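dude i think i finally got it to work??
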Amino acid sequence: MKNKINLTVATDINGQGGIATVLNVYKQAGFLSNNSVKLIATHSTNSQFGRVGAILLYLSALFKVIYYHIFYRVGLVHIHVASRGSYLRKSLLVRVIKTMGGKVILHLHGAEFRDFYAHECDPKRQKHIRDTFEMSDSVIVLSSQWIEWGKSTFERSEHFRLLYNAVPSLETDGKRVPSSYISFLGRVGERKGLHDLLNAMVIVKQQCPDVKLLVGGDGEVERFKAIAKDLNLESEVEFMGWVSGKDKLDVLNKSQVFCLPSYNEGFPMGVLEAMSTGVAVVSTYAGGIPDAIEHRKEGILVEAGDSEALANALIELIQSPDLHQDYVSNAKRKFDESFSVRAIIPQLQNIYDEVSTSRSYS
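look at this
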């Protein structure tokens, strides 16, 4: 009798980015081992072999998916997908799996997927996307906004499920003292709103001359260093590159405020990590952020692109310790109840059980 397994298809678990972080959370929580999950990487941020290496890795993943369906009893395949190239890679796999009679959970992470669908895809490509989502047995999205998008976009959307990203509560040193450090953790670029944050810092430093901004992330680092220099912020902004593990915890431990002024988001891990470590959050209404931060309850939200409002929010939290503490306490309570590993993993298990015991959608 064939051994029963489940498959997860995603980026390399040892790479960078939100999907790799989510996979590591599932692994550390024991979810992968408890469900006999084998990981299959279609993409890696650590690849040193360029385009040829990327093609070979994808072909290897395609072969493994077919191999496991022939020689094992595959319960389901959990496919993590974003936009553009990620969608192209994963949509072929969905069709291969469904052709073989398999079951698919499609897990949407792409913060820009709505824009990708609406503005970068012609009607033929849009139909291809609708077919991919509708032939899947379950579709996991990261926020209530994405549930509404599913209802308005797809003829079949009753199989959409809301599942927030799970984040382990980071161990703090318990010695947080008031500071003027603001942290930004995420890809350095326009989508995450870093340009707006730098413009806001010009205003903030006039009211809070000791303020410092710690930028942790890869991407367009040199370009944004030049922007900071043009704004005379060289002394106030430190670009740290990609930070993870203890380095990330060190950044959060010294931060008074975490700021993520994004234009598009799925459900950003950085916001949740800040909530878990007692760092006040200033962010925007993008993607799933309002599911985590209710304005003036767990933090402050501003409209994306409004540098002046962003500056005022940062100044208020730096200068108002009582208000800061109220937001931090509320955010920590909400994190424990709604976004901790303890809260999320059982919900994911329910989705697995639901798909495993139902007939394959065709």
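The domain at 4-166+341-357 is CATH 3.40.50.2000 (Rossmann fold).
im so relieved honestly
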